[in-house]
Amino acid sequence: MEIGNIKKQEIIKEMQDCYLDYAMSVIVGRALPDARDGMKPVHRRILYAMWDMGLRSTAKLRKSATVVGEVLGKYHPHGDVAVYDTMVRLAQDFSMRYPMIQGQGNFGSLDGDGAAAMRYTECRLTPLAEEMMQDIDKDTVDWVDNYDGSRQEPLSLPAKLPQLLLNGSVGIAVGMATNIPPHNLTELVDGINYLIVNPKCSPEELIKIIKGPDFPTGGAIFDRQAILQAYSTGKGAVVNRALAEITEDKKGHQQIIVSEIPYQVNKASLLETIADLVKDKKVEGIKDIRDESDKDGVRIVIDLKTDSYPQKVLNRLYKLTDLQKTFHFNMLALVEGGLQPQVLPLKNILEQYVEHRYKVIVRRTQFDLARAKDRAHILEGLKKALDHIDAIISTIRKSANKEEAHVALCKKFKFSDAQTTAILDMKLQTLAGLERQKIEDELKEKKKIIEELEILLKSPKKILGVIKDELNYLKDKFGDERRTKVFVSPVGEFKEEDLVPQEECIITLTSGGYVKRLNPKNYKAQHRGGKGIMGMTTREEDEVESMACVKTHDNLLFFTTTGRVFQIKGYEIPESSRVARGTAIVNFLQLGPNEKVSALVATKEGLKEKKNPPVGGLPAGGAVVDEKYLVMMTKDGIIKKTDIAEFTNVRRSGLIAINLNKGDELRWVRVSSGQDEIILVTGGGQSIRFKEKDVRPMGRGAAGVRGLKLKKGDEVINLDVIKSAALKETKPELLVVMQNGYGKKTDLRQFKIQRRSGSGIKAAQVTAKTGQIVAAKILDPQEQDLIAISQKGQVIRTALSSVSSLGRATQGVRIMKLEPGDKVASVTCL
Question: Which end of the chain is more exposed for a tag (fewer CB within 10 A), N or C?
Fold first, then answer.
C-alpha cells in the first residue's frame, strides 16, 4: 500500500537493509586496506593531501594542524582526532617498520605516551612515502569525486612498494577484522622478483625468501611451520618473544637484560605487570626492576636475588607477561578494485601487488607515449614549417588576422590545428641554425622514445622487467637488515642450535663455581717459558680449577664432588670475553650446600638414539669414537666403571653417579671402550697403570673399588684412559705439569702395566722447586698446543712440541713463568 511517495516497509527488513549498507560502508570505505596499495582511505587521503601541498621530504616542515585541516576540508569529512591519530602512527618508528611521515616534536613513545597536540608538532613525507606517490599525475590510477564534488581524489596510489605487507595493517570492520604484520623490504623485493620469474612457486619456496614478519621493535618469532601455515592460508598464530639476556653486573649479581620487546607491547604496562607479579609472589627471585631505555634503544634491567635461577625466572616472565606474545595473522584486504573483502595468502597478496603495478606501468607508458606522440607531431609541423619558411611567412602576411592565417595554413600546407597553433606561436629566433638543429634532434629523440614505449607495451615480459628494476632500485635505496630473529623450532621446543654454530670452545670452571665459554682464538700461541696473558678475572680467594675443550653442541655431563651428575648443552654456558669472570654454575645446576662440580664429560649429539654413542672425554674432547663406559675416580683412590647408557636421561635435578665413602670426593670421570688401559697419577709423583678389565662394570648406585694405594698426605690428581687403538698406531706420551710451572712429556712405555690397587711407580721427581703435580694426561697425536691457566687467571698457550720429552724420575722444564705466590691450576690441550 502506497500513500503518495511513502512506501510501507517492515521495520525488521528496513533495519537489516540499513545496517548492511552501514556495514559495507565501514568495510569498504573505512576499516580495511586495499590490496593494491595497502592503504585505508584515511591513510591514502593524508599522504595524497601532503603530496598535493608539496610537503616532500626535502620541503620545509609544516604544522600538523595544517595537514589535518587540508585533509578534513578536502577529502575526509570526519573527526580531526581520527586523522591526527593516523598521522601520528604513520610517523612512529616503533609502529611502522618503514614510517611514511617524518615528524618533528613529540609523536608518542613505547610507554604509551600520547603525541603532543597537532598545533605543536610538524611533519612532512619521508623519501619512501614519495615513492608511493610517484607517477600519480600520469593517469596511472582511477580517480573519484571527493565528498562534495569540488575536486577529485585517487582510488589507489601507484605504490612502488607492497605497502600492505611492508608496514602491515590493523583494522576492525563490522563482522570482520584484519591483522597483517610488517615485513622486511629487502625480503619482500626478493620474494616478488622470485614470484615474477616463477609464477607457479609454492608457499614453501616463498618462505625461504620471506622468512616471516619483521617487527619494528625487533624481538624473535618462532616455528617455521606456524609461519608457513599463516602464509599459506592467510590465517595463523606466530609467537613473538622479547630478546632477553642473562648477564652479571660488576658486583657479580645476576641480571636479566631485555633489549627488544614484542610488537605493540606497552613498555610501561609491561613493567607494571612484572612488578605486580613480584608483589603477589607469582614470580620469585626478582630483587629490582629498572627501565634504562634511552634514545639508543630499549633496556629493561631485572636484578635477581642471589639464590634465584635466572633461566627459570625468565621462563616464568615469558609465560605470565607480554615478554612473549602471540601475533594472530588475519590477512584480510579489499580486492577487485577495492570492493570485495577477502582473506589472502602471502602469494595472493604479492600477485595482487604485481597485477596492480603491471596496470600502473601500462597506464604510465600509455600516458608517456601519448605525450611523446603529441610532441613529435608538433615537432614535425615545426620542421616542415622551417623547410618552407618563406611560403609560410608569405601566407601569414597575406592573412587579415590570426584566425584567417590559421585557416590558410591548415588548407595550404595540410597542417593540423595543433601544428598550426605551434607555428603561429613560433618565435623568430627559431629560424637560427642552432634552433633548427635542436628541433631536429628533439624530434629524433621523441621518435626513439615512441619506438621504445611501443615495444614495451607489446611485451608483458618487459613490463615485468620494469617492475623488477624499480623494486631493485628501491631495495638498494631503502633496504636494510632484518630486525626480528626467526627461529625454526616452535617456542616450546626451541633449541638454541638454530643460531649457535657447531664450533670448538673452551670451558673454564673456578673453585668458586664460576663457569664460562670462550673461543680458543682468544689465545695466541707463545714461546715456552713465557708469562702468558690474562685469561680471566677471578674473585679474591677464588682460583681456576679446571679447563676443557669441547664443541658447542656437545651435551656436557657435570659430575660433582658429592657423586651426582647434571647435564646441559655446551652453548647454554654464556660465551664470555677472555678476562671475564664468567657465570655462577648454580644458574645452570641445582647444586646443594658445599657441593662443587669436579669433572666434565662431553657426549655428542645423538646419544639417546645410538646403542654405543660417540662421546669424548674431557679435557681431550677431540676424536669421535665409539665408547661404552664412564670411568670415575675419587681423591682417595676409589675407582668405578659404569655403562654410559645409564646416563642418557639425566634430569635437570641431577642423578646419583657414585656412592661415596664419608670424607671422599668424586674428582675425575673419563670415557672408555672396555678394552683400554687406565693410568692414575698422584700429586706426590706416584703413578699406576693397569688394564681396564681389572675394574668390573657397576651400577650408578655402587661405591667402586680401590685403584691405587696412597701414601699418607697424598691424593690422586688425575685419571686418564689409554686407548687401545692409540697403543697400536702411535707411541703415546704422558704430559705432567707441576704447580710452579714445570712440565715434561714421558714415553708411556716407561710405565709398566701392574695390577690394580698397588702403590705404583714414580711419574716425576717432585721437589720444592717444582711443586706438586697438578695435571697429568695422555697426549693425543692430534693435539698440538697446550693451554695452562694459573690460580690467579694467567693463561699461556704454547706448542706441545716445545715441551721436552724426559724420563719418569725427572723434574721437567719451565713451561710458564708465574708471579710470586701464584700456581698452575689447570691444563688442557688443543
Answer: N
